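Example record

The entry below shows one chain as it appears in the dataset: sequence first, then C-alpha cells.
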Amino acid sequence: MNKKAQSTLIIALVGIAILVVLVWWFLRPASLPSSIVKGNGRIEATEIDIVTKTSGRVVVILPVVRV
C-alpha cells in the first residue's frame, strides 16, 4: 500500500469514528428523571421482621412534615 492510499484510509477511518461519536451523542437516551437516584457501591441492610397484634390494611400514609 502506498503512502497516499494509506493516508486516505487513515483520514477515512478518523472521519467514520467522528461520525459514530456524533451520532451516539445525539441519539443517546436522556438523563434519568430527578426521582431516580443513580450511583454505584455497596448497600448493606439488616432484615427485620415486624409482627403486629392486630390485622388490617394501611388506608393512608401521611407525609412527614419536618420543622
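Notes for this example: The chain has a mean pLDDT of 88. The CA atoms of residues 13 and 19 lie 10 Å apart.
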